[in-house]
Amino acid sequence: MNPHAKLITTASLILGTTITITSNHWAMAWTGLEINTIAIIPMISKSHHPRAIEATIKYFLVQAAASASILFSSLINAWSTGQWDITQLTNPTSCLLLTAAIAMKLGLVPFHFWFPEVLQGSSLTTALLLSTAMKFPPITILLLTSNSLNPPLLTLMAVASAALGGWTGLNQTQLRKILAFSSISHLGWMTVIIIYAPKLTLLTFLLYTLLTSAIFLSLNTSHTTKLSTLMTSWTKTPMLNATLMLILLSLAGLPPFIGFLPKWLIIQELTKQEMTSTALTLALLSLLSLFFYLRLAYSSSITLPPNSTNQTKHWYTNKNANPLIAILTSLSILLLPLSPLILPTI
């Protein structure tokens, strides 16, 4: 991509996100979401591959429909209450429409169909942005309106997302699709607790962003997009593959890694809210996600390919590692002992 175009799109992403997360007016929040959508479209389509163009069109149509629904929801609320403040969402129809629109923007079940396809048609760097930065503005709107949302509906969507994210990720061989279903599953965990503990949702999202960034940057360094190439990437970057296994186990929520902290706190909070059955269901559904995380970890570092592959081998590998990967990897693996410093803020 042209450096000037990259600068404009990056600045637009930052501007759109900032406008959305700092605004209290529905029109400004909608404007920030639209700036974000327009800024990410050139990044998805920059390879000019037919799959990338298809992903761009799917992403644009879904985001345009979701943005129109958000604007329509705010108009209905303003018509009935005279309020344009985001926190003053009191009309039941507006609440229902907003929940559906934000679920569409995030990729929550049952509006999840576009997300794996768009990630599969994007580069690893763009997929990282779609999985992390592009989710932050919609989650911020959910946090601001959490007092007005319908708890049974959100709980149903959250449990369905955790179930479908784990179940459909089992038979995937493309790493971007696996990480897309992982994102859907994690969004279910964030959504189920957003009404009862909004700060815990924010903590879960920040830790998910940390872990996912480390994984995507590691895969981008080794140029790995499929399970078969992951099995042979240890010849190029053995240390990176060893740490990738630990990050995957952290994302799965296994102690003693930091990924265990949000799931533990969410189950504890759900138990306090007398939602023990929901907590038990989510804990059991996380075993589905754990299976394909373990399969990825096993393929990356423990097992060897049974035969030679047909892929082109690089006779020279760039040894200049990205220092950001080292920082994110260290935090992903070793941050749990510092969790007592985080807990008082929740």
UniProtKB/TrEMBL annotation:
One GO term describing the cellular component: mitochondrial inner membrane
Subcellular location per the Swiss-Prot or TrEMBL entry: Mitochondrion inner membrane
Keyword tags: Electron transport, Membrane, Mitochondrion, Mitochondrion inner membrane, NAD, Respiratory chain, Translocase, Transmembrane, Transmembrane helix, Transport, Ubiquinone
Record carries keyword Magnesium: no
Membrane topology: Multi-pass membrane protein
Transmembrane parts of this sequence: 57-76, 96-115, 152-171, 178-196, 202-219, 239-258, 278-298, 323-343
Tagged with keyword Zinc: no
EC numbers on record: 7.1.1.2
Any one Gene Ontology molecular-function term assigned to this protein's record: NADH dehydrogenase (ubiquinone) activity
One Pfam family named in its UniProt record: Proton_antipo_M
Catalyzed chemical reaction(s): a ubiquinone + NADH + 5 H(+)(in) = a ubiquinol + NAD(+) + 4 H(+)(out)
GO biological process: mitochondrial electron transport, NADH to ubiquinone
Domain NADH:quinone oxidoreductase/Mrp antiporter transmembrane: 23-287
Domain NADH dehydrogenase subunit 2 C-terminal, first and last residues per copy: 290-343
Top-level taxon in the UniProt lineage: Eukaryota
Function: Core subunit of the mitochondrial membrane respiratory chain NADH dehydrogenase (Complex I) which catalyzes electron transfer from NADH through the respiratory chain, using ubiquinone as an electron acceptor. Essential for the catalytic activity and assembly of complex I.
Family note: Belongs to the complex I subunit 2 family.
Protein name as it appears in the record: NADH-ubiquinone oxidoreductase chain 2
Organism of origin: Dryobates pubescens (Downy woodpecker)
